[in-house]
Specification:
The protein is mostly helical and about 270 residues long. About 70% of the residues lie in helices and about 0% in strands. This is TLC domain-containing protein.
Length: about 270
């Protein structure tokens, strides 16, 4: 059994590996339970697998966001500070999730190149910060900024997959996701990168990972702007034709809209 009171996640590699192994087992077990309990028989198997895996992602996002927020707001470490036990634990828990999710997405054929590159960089960044004993504050800031929009991000995809894209429920999730993403990533991530690079103790790979998160954020913010612009013109057409979205079901009159059969999948996670 793992005794949390007697582990040293800052100086002991064996303890780090032990917590990583236990955490990976827990994430895998959570998916196994969800896989047994959640049934979506009216949808293709790949959609079912993706939704079940997203539920695990939502759990990870909620846990790590609050852990990261506690560290940032309560412990308030400087960007050049040495890693604390709490920081190490949070990074290892998150890294083990990314390893689980990477393998799960490969196994269930849910992975694409953006996921492979994102998860690989995240795992490497966590590993370097954990073993070098520096760089955790930057990683924690990045984690908090990224996971704050986790829940609405996944819910919008789940609603889309079960056929509720053209509903107010989907729109509420999408707009909440965009708002949280733009506000937090547009402010906290640049602040984190700006304060990370001058710190000589922070490993180079952690700085590169932080910069990668910033560049990804800028790219997706511009993509979101395009989506919102397109949605404005779609709203104008619905208003002109007096067609309204319902909250929990699709209005059958949406088939009268010119854009309904020409919509592409928006790639903003």
């Amino acid at each position: 059994m793992l005794n949390l009171e007697n582990i040293d996640l800052v100086n002991s590699t064996s303890d780090q590996v032990k917590v990583m192994s236990y955490s990976f087992f827990i994430w895998t077990s959570i998916f196994a339970i969800i896989n047994q309990r959640v049934h979506l028989k009216n949808h293709p198997k790949k959609v079912q697998d993706d939704i079940k895996n997203r539920i695990v992602s939502i759990i990870h996002g909620a846990l790590t966001f609050w852990a990261a927020a506690y560290i940032v707001l309560v412990e308030q470490p400087s960007f050049g500070a040495a890693n604390s036990q709490t920081m190490q634990f949070t990074m290892i828990i998150s890294a083990s999730y990314f390893v689980y999710d990477f393998l799960a997405c490969l196994y269930y054929d849910l992975a694409d190149m953006s996921l492979v590159s994102h998860h690989s960089l995240a795992i490497c960044g966590y590993a370097v910060a954990t073993f070098s004993k520096f760089g955790a504050p930057s990683s924690i800031w990045g984690l908090m900024s990224a996971e704050v929009s986790n829940f609405p991000m996944h819910m919008r995809v789940i609603f889309r997959q079960v056929g509720l894209r053209h509903t107010k429920l989907y729109e509420a999730c999408e707009w909440t996701y965009f708002a949280l993403y733009i506000i937090f990533r547009g402010s906290l991530v640049p602040y984190m990168v700006w304060n990370t690079w001058p710190e000589s103790e922070v490993p180079l790979l952690v700085k590169i990972t932080a910069t990668g998160l910033f560049l990804q954020s800028v790219y997706f913010i511009f993509e979101m702007k395009k989506i919102l612009t397109r949605q404005y013109f779609q709203y104008q057409e619905r208003k002109k034709k007096n067609i309204h979205h319902y909250w929990f079901q699709v209005n059958p009159r949406i088939q009268e809209l010119s854009y309904i059969n020409n919509q592409k999948k928006d790639k903003v996670f």
